[in-house]
Write a structure and sequence with these properties.
Helices cover 54% and strands 13% of the residues. It is of the alpha/beta class. It starts with a helix and ends with a helix. It binds guanosine-5'-diphosphate (GDP). It is a peripheral membrane protein.
């Protein structure tokens, strides 16, 4: 992940480390290159601008140019700032699934990896947290998507709500809640219908489902390869249904990483997990330090 940004910044810092003592002009040049690298990684302009300004302020404050190893010092400042932007100063939060049956609402556009991520997260909660999970697909427009969740459930040993033809999303949500309560499940996960674009019908449906389930977590699944678009989708979903966190998928691809950097700064919502492949265990908790390390290479 992040190859391009990593290589780009790597090049900048290679030159910095080789030069020995730096002048103010050297630092300014390096920061300009950092800014270009961020923009090329599809980080939004205000975020890139703020990032460079913060690094510059700290670099000046710490008298980097007089340091024996100015390049490494700048690298450290950039690393710390990356972590700060990626996490928004907060400790990573655990999912709030402490009140059985807790609902987890999965939202996002079609093709973002929502159904796969629902199954990945269910598997993780079962294997790592010992939770009893019930999954339900609300994608009444696409029977294939409902069947897909059922197949995934069988693969990972997680129950799915039986499919009843002709039900609306709201009816399915109600049935899932009832079954989760009666069946003694810890968590029920609702895989909502995706659309190709955000539309009012979709949002209305998600809002109605949300009102019934009153989810402890509403996780937006977005394709990490879509950069700034992912951030725009997150802003829209948050405004319409309110999200508690983001899962960035396809972070195993050669994406440019901009979505991760802008997401927290623009939406104020934490990235909870990253998807790192098609396999059902390819889901990791988001760790800013590791991501920052990868960005820097
Ligand atoms: P949905 O329409 O949002 O429910 O999307 P799906 O869950 O059906 O996923 C669409 C495709 O993306 C499938 O082929 C998944 O295997 C794939 N996919 C999902 N998450 C990831 C990921 O993190 N990395 C990669 N490489 N592929 C993923």
């Amino acid at each position: 992940m992040f190859e391009n940004l990593s290589e780009r910044l790597g090049g900048v810092f290679d030159r910095l480390t080789k030069q020995g003592a730096l002048t103010d002009a050297d630092v300014a040049t390096a920061l300009r290159e950092v800014r270009v690298a961020l923009l090329e990684a599809d980080v939004s302009l205000p975020v890139a601008r703020d990032f460079v300004a913060a690094v510059q302020e700290r670099a000046t404050g710490q008298a980097v140019t007089k340091s024996v190893t100015p390049g490494q010092q700048v690298v450290k400042i950039v690393h710390d700032e990356l972590v700060r932007v990626l996490t928004g100063d907060d400790e990573p939060e655990a999912l709030k699934i402490d009140n059985p049956p807790s609902a987890v609402l999965m939202v996002g556009l079609q093709g973002s990896g929502k159904t796969t991520t629902t199954a990945k997260l269910a598997k993780r909660l079962k294997d790592k947290n010992g939770k009893r999970i019930l999954m339900a697909s609300l994608d009444t427009n696409r029977p294939a998507a409902m069947e897909q969740l059922q197949i995934l459930g069988t693969q990972i040993g997680v129950d799915t709500l039986p499919i009843v033809k002709g039900e609306t999303a709201v009816q399915i949500a109600r049935r899932a809640k009832q079954q989760a309560t009666l069946g003694g499940y810890d968590v029920y996960m609702l895989d909502t219908a995706g659309r190709l674009h955000i539309d009012e019908v979709l949002m209305g449906e998600v809002q109605a489902v949300r009102d019934i389930a009153q989810p402890r977590e509403t996780l937006l699944v977005v394709d990490g390869l879509t950069g700034q678009d992912a951030v725009n989708v997150a802003t829209e979903f948050d405004g319409k249904v309110g999200i508690t966190g983001v899962v960035l998928t396809r972070m195993d691809g050669d994406g440019r990483g901009g979505a991760a950097l802008s997401m927290r700064a623009v939406t104020g919502k934490p990235i909870r997990f990253v998807g790192l492949g098609e396999k059902l265990d390819a889901l990791e908790t988001f760790e800013a330090g590791r991501v920052a390390g990868r960005i820097l290479g």
